C-alpha cells in the first residue's frame, strides 16, 4: 500500500507577505489564509482560517525591527501549536536581534539566545534562516536549524559580471572569514577594513589592510544598517586607487539616512536580497530574490531529502 506525503501548508506574517507569496509560488502552492485582528490599544491576534491539524506548516516571517514583527511570529507559532499542527517550521530569512549574540559589556542581555528560546517555547520545531550575523547562533537552539547562505545567489551573480582585477573585501574584521570564502570561490585577492567604533553605528577610525589600487572591489557582509561602514569603506578604497567599489549584503535594513549616504558615496552598486522589504529610492540598489532558494529548501525538508548543496561557503 503506497502512502502519499500530504503537501505542507505555507503561511506568512504581515511583514513578509510579499516574500511569502513569492516563496509559495516558487513552491507551487498557495499562501494560506491568516487574519490579523487588531485592538485599539495596539494588541493583535492572528487566526488561521483553515484547519492545520496534523499538517506540516511553514510560517514565513523575518524579525527585523520593530518588535511587532517578532511578536507576530511568536503568536503565529503559538496558534499553530494550539491548533495541533504536526510540524511547525519558522522560516526566518532574516533572524533579528542576532547582533546581541554575547555580552560585550556588563549588565546587557544576550538577545539572540533569548529569541531562540522564545521561538522554541512558542512551538517552532525547526528553523530555516539565512546568513546569521554569527554562525554560532545555531547553537542557541535545541531544535534543528537550517542555516542557508546567500552566496548561492551572490556567487553566480558576481561570476556573470566578469569583473577584471576582482578583489573581495570585508568591511570589518568580523567578516574576514566570509570574505576569504568568497575570494576562494572566485579566485581573487582579499582586503580587510579595520574599524574602531565610538559607539553603535558611529565609526571613529577606519584603516585598510591590503592593496586595492586598480582593482574592482566587491565588499561582502551579512547586513547593511545605516550604511556608514560600507560607504566610508568605499570612499577610502576609491581614495586608495580602486577602479570601482560594490557591495553585496544579504539583509538590507537601510535604516536612518542610509539611502542618502549611499547616494552621496562612491559606492557604485549595492546588491541585497529581499529577505526583508527593501526601501526603494536609490538607483544604486539591486535586489536579488531569495524566494526560489527558500522554496527549494522547504520542499527538500518536507520530503526528507538532502539540502547539503545549499550550504555553499
From TrEMBL:
This protein's UniProt keywords: ATP-binding, Kinase, Magnesium, Metal-binding, Nucleotide biosynthesis, Nucleotide-binding, Transferase
Limits of the Ribose-phosphate pyrophosphokinase N-terminal domain: 9-123
EC assignment: 2.7.6.1
Keyword Glycosyltransferase: no
Protein name according to UniProt: ribose-phosphate diphosphokinase
Amino acid at each position: 500500500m503506497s502512502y502519499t506525503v500530504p503537501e505542507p501548508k505555507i503561511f506568512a506574517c504581515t511583514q513578509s507577505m510579499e516574500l511569502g507569496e513569492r516563496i509559495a509560488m516558487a513552491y507551487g502552492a498557495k499562501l494560506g489564509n491568516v487574519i490579523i485582528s487588531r485592538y485599539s490599544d495596539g494588541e493583535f491576534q492572528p487566526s488561521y482560517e483553515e484547519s492545520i491539524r496534523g499538517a506540516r506548516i511553514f510560517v514565513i516571517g523575518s524579525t527585523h525591527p520593530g518588535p511587532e514583527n517578532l511578536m507576530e511570529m511568536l503568536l503565529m507559532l503559538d496558534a499553530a501549536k494550539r491548533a495541533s499542527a504536526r510540524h511547525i517550521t519558522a522560516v526566518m530569512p532574516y533572524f533579528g536581534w542576532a547582533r546581541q549574540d554575547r555580552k560585550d559589556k556588563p549588565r546587557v542581555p544576550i538577545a539572540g539566545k533569548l529569541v531562540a528560546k522564545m521561538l522554541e517555547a512558542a512551538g517552532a520545531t525547526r528553523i530555516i534562516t539565512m546568513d546569521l550575523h554569527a554562525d554560532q547562533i545555531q547553537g542557541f537552539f535545541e531544535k534543528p536549524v537550517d542555516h542557508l547562505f546567500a552566496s548561492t545567489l551572490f556567487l553566480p551573480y558576481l561570476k556573470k559580471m566578469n569583473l577584471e582585477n576582482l578583489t573581495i573585501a570585508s568591511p570589518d574584521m568580523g567578516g574576514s572569514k566570509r570574505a576569504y570564502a568568497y575570494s576562494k570561490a572566485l579566485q581573487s585577492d582579499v582586503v580587510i577594513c579595520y574599524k574602531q567604533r565610538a559607539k553603535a553605528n558611529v565609526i571613529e577610525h577606519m584603516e585598510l589592510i591590503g592593496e586595492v589600487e586598480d582593482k574592482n572591489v566587491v565588499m561582502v557582509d551579512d547586513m547593511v544598517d545605516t550604511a556608514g561602514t560600507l560607504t566610508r569603506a568605499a570612499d577610502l578604497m576609491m581614495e586608495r586607487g580602486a577602479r570601482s567599489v560594490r557591495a553585496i549584503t544579504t539583509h538590507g535594513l537601510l535604516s536612518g539616512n542610509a539611502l542618502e549616504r549611499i547616494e552621496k558615496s562612491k559606492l557604485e552598486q549595492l546588491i541585497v536580497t529581499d529577505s526583508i522589504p527593501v526601501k526603494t529610492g536609490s538607483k544604486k540598489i539591486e535586489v536579488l530574490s531569495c524566494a526560489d532558494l527558500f522554496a527549494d529548501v522547504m520542499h527538500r525538508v518536507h520530503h526528507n531529502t538532502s539540502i547539503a548543496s545549499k550550504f555553499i561557503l
